[in-house]
Amino acid sequence: MTEHRPTAGRDRLRELLDAVLAEDNRTLTAMAGDAYASPWHFSRQVSRGAGESPVALRRRVELERAAWQLGQGSSVTDVAFAAGYESVEGFSRAFARAYGRTPGRPAPAQARDDHWLPAPNGIHFHPPASLRVADPSQGRGGDEVTALLVHHDLEDTRALLVTAAELPEEEYRRVRDRELQVLPWDGPEGSLATLLEHHVWTTEVWLASVEGADHPHRGADDPAVLLARHDEAAPRWLAFVRDVSRRGAWGDRLVDALCDPPESFVLSSVVAHVLTYGAHRRQLARHWFRTSGVPVDAGDPIEWLSRRNP
């Protein structure tokens, strides 16, 4: 994986990247040992030079390689173990979070960088066994921030739905604010049940619009059903955002026939809308969890990313 084109001289960052991506270096300790550094010092140097922790960099590049291999016809099982995962299930979850689709349904290749994930450093897997460092001036603009916000929203929503399942039914459905109405067309949402259902429903409705589907069926609002609804919609929503980002289509317009009368929306504003009201609802849900005596974290993207990419 670490084959590079010849360069004039060999710098320390190149040596660090070789240690990160060497085939046998599956742990931070092994990476650091190859670079003749302590794990702490090694991690600090890589993070400073590449903008990613060693573990996060390796995990991302391996997922990019996996996506390319799947597109070439490799089996999910073979790709999962080659990428260092201990189970196909763990690999499938990581792949779906990253690409917005299950590895069993790889998208057909359309461009050389279709398998690339958002990266702060331009370092990507380049088939069949090399790396490519993209010119930052030709990068994806601020899309890394958008990708982080969308990932955080989806994973944080899932965590809140799991927490909701632990509440007694009366606490979950207790009306806490009879006047609360986040958006006028959504109606009252003064309980955790209505608040979380409206949050999931928002993504489902916008997905139907961008996919050109019929108005979605509105399922039940108990936590288990909401979690299933979210898990079905989340990968599709992530795939939509990734596709818009890849095509640089943030300024495209969507004519939403589900509205009466039909309305026109800029795609970037649709994503911003979902993120804005999603953040409000998630933080309000946290406040209500606390008033019910349920401890929850702050929902901070900084803390979430630190836990996700140690």
Derived structural class: mainly alpha
Specify the overall morphology.
globular
What pattern of helices and strands is seen along the backbone?
A: HHHHHHEEHHHHEEHH
The major sheet is characterized as: 2 strands, antiparallel
Task: Determine the mean pLDDT.
Answer: 82
Q: Largest beta sheet: what is the strand line-up?
A: 1-2
Termini separation comes to 22 Å
Backbone CA Rg: 21 Å
Question: Can you tell me about this structure?
Answer:
The protein is mainly alpha-helical and 310 residues long. The protein is 55% helix and 5% strand. It contains 12 helices and 4 strands, in the order ααααααββααααββαα. A two-stranded antiparallel ribbon has the order 1-2. The protein has a two-stranded antiparallel ribbon with strand order 3-4. Strand 1 and strand 2 form a beta hairpin. It is globular and about 60 Å long. The chain starts with 11 loop residues before the first helix and ends with a helix.
